[in-house]
Description:
It contains two helices and 14 strands, in the order βββββββββββαββαβ.
Amino acid sequence: MTMQPPRLLPTPFLGVTLALSLIVSAGRPACGQQTAPTGAQKGGPEIAFRGQREARDIKFGEWQKVCFKPGAAKMVCRTTLSGTFNTGQTAVRVYLTEREDSEGARLQLFLPVGLYLPAGATLAVDQGATYRVPFTWCLTNTCIAGDLADPNLLRDMDSGQTLALRVVDTNLLSVRTLLPLDQFATARKGRPARIFEQDIDE
């Protein structure tokens, strides 16, 4: 981005340490957000934007899949992509978490603080249908939007070229960035880059 998002006014954050979690499925609602709906939803609330801008100076890495196999439990795989500002600070991180032999998937977006949380984050593949992902909680340096991934969105991501991510900052400016999808399907459906195994003593 040409400039980092403005910081939020002091708000209470959850005192939780961010780790390599497999699934972040619960938590208190993010600061300033109403109760989050279940499942990614098309569209979103009507927000009177004061303007819009593109976030252009984000450098993205490659899509990568890592898997976790805790003992005899089903393997859980996470397909992820990270983007950073020129300063090296993380701008966005995407997690798609899927469990072996399960049709459901969970999508999470890790974004900087300083956003208008009730608007959530919206996603669209190649200017197609828009899907809203609600913010679920915040830490001191990141806010997390997450929900069940719509199968239609995943199908579009598998075949699409770019994923448009749009958020709203505290000045009510709509901020958009484009995430590459050319390697998404290969990473998601291919062999994992790493498998972490852990035996659990009974």
